[in-house]
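User: Can you help me understand a structure? I only have the sequence.
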Amino acid sequence: CWPGKALTMEMPVPYCPSLEGHTQILRGDYRKLAFIGNDAMSTVFASHSLEDWETPEQIIIVNEWKRVLECGGNLIIVCPDEKVYAQHCRDSQQIYNQNHKISEYSLEYFKHHVLPYTGAWETLLEESLIDGYSWNWVGKKLP
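Assistant: Let's start by predicting it. Here is the structure, written out as tokens:
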């Protein structure tokens, strides 16, 4: 890994075409990061990506992110709390993102239905509500 550098990634078909042209170093399926070796990254940061997958795929994704993290590396996840997000959309007349798969998705959902199936982590931070409708979880990969 390159200290102080970041690899950005987008799915093969861009999730948000309006962002096309922004620097994305890699395109691929983050359920299968075969091009990244085991224990290669010090940090994985995922913002608003897990909510687009059903629970079994989320488990696969978090396990893959864990595989590429070095021991002691950090996984940082930011996702919307679906109930709060849905209300935000109604209140602001913003279009609701239909790609979100789990209507009850929240930090608690993640902690009970995904995280237990991904091995040992030390939780460094958890916030159930940031930026109006998102939650944040930071974990350190344990041996």
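Now, to help you interpret it: Strands lie at 9-10, 26-27, 41-47, 69-80, 121-130, 134-141. The mean pLDDT is 87. Let me know which part you'd like to focus on.
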